Amino acid sequence: MPCGARVVDCGAKAIGGLEAGRLLAEVCLAGLGQVQLFRGREKLWPGASIAVSTDQPLLACMASQYAGWQVSVGKYFAMGSGPMRIAAYQEPILKELFQRETSTVAVGVLETSSLPTDEVCLDIAQQCEAPASAIVLLVARTKSLAGNVQVVARSVETALHKLHAIGFDLKRVISGFGTSPLPPPATSDLGAIGRTNDSILYGGEVTLWVSGDDESLLQTGPKVPSCSSQAFGEPFAAIFEAAGRDFYQIDSSLFSPAVITFVNVESGHSHRFGEVRPDILARSFNS
């Protein structure tokens, strides 16, 4: 860009691909996690699935991967994630959980259909307190193949965000592993939002290795999976339409993986909660 920032098109105007999406997802995790593609379970969804693992879940998912930065400059809008968030330090959740980090380099991921302008890059650089020449922004729209991969790779992050919302101490989480089926690319970004949400809500399975007592896990567990929400049971596109296409009108307890398993590293006990719904995935992915 004229200001010196670098913009990498992974799936906005460029076609992108599976590997672009896999690397994009690892950038979202600030390099603190691994993302892989594997053959999914036939009874859940016969296509590919995405697996994500991290031994630094709090930093990888909450300080970086969570798309909590609404990048809005003039008419430009994108959902921002990646390690640039902790440098900008604008979001309440970051101030609650972390200290601000300073860096001479800021890398971020933008979920949007259009590439950022020079003005957008300069604004991000200013908020990150880094020179514009040190800004690297990777861009993919939701309906692109790369965009699909990076969104579906958020199963662990979604579980952690839900746990934080219900008051669970995230410092107890030592490691995380999650899988979600990769949906067919939709013909529109709105359709892709529906399918990628359904992938996690009805097909996402997350295992968290945690410390502490079992009693609190048994009390917390039923509140975590998406089936704890009254909105559970319909494809996300239908839920979104019923809410007037307003995310804030949707029961926030819906946004969680279908299944959560806690493995207590101190007691050796495991506790599983939730259910996958291949019937709803089939309705969503074939619509």
List the topology elements.
Elements: E1 6-11, H1 18-28, E2 33-39, E3 48-54, H2 57-65, E4 69-73, E5 76-81, H3 84-88, H4 92-97, E6 106-111, H5 118-128, E7 135-140, H6 145-152, H7 155-165, E8 173-181, H8 189-203, E9 205-210, H9 214-220, H10 236-242, E10 259-264, E11 270-274, H11 278-285
Parallel strand pairs: 1-7, 6-7, 9-10
Antiparallel strand pairs: 2-3, 3-8, 4-5, 5-6, 8-9, 10-11
Summarize the structure.
The chain is of the alpha/beta class and 287 residues long.
Provide a descriptive summary of the structure in words:
The chain is α/β, with parallel strands linked by helices. The model has no long low-confidence stretch (mean pLDDT 96). Strands 2-3-8-9-10-11 form a six-stranded mixed beta sheet. It has a five-stranded mixed beta sheet with strand order 1-7-6-5-4. The chain has a single domain (6-285), classed as Methenyltetrahydromethanopterin Cyclohydrolase, Chain A, domain 2 (2-Layer Sandwich), CATH 3.30.1030.10. The protein contains eleven helices and eleven strands. The termini are far apart. The protein is globular, with a radius of gyration of 18 Å. Strand 4 (69-73) and strand 5 (76-81) form a beta hairpin. The chain has helices spanning 18-28, 57-65, 84-88, 92-97, 118-128, 145-152, 155-165, 189-203, 214-220, 236-242, 278-285, and strands spanning 6-11, 33-39, 48-54, 69-73, 76-81, 106-111, 135-140, 173-181, 205-210, 259-264, 270-274.
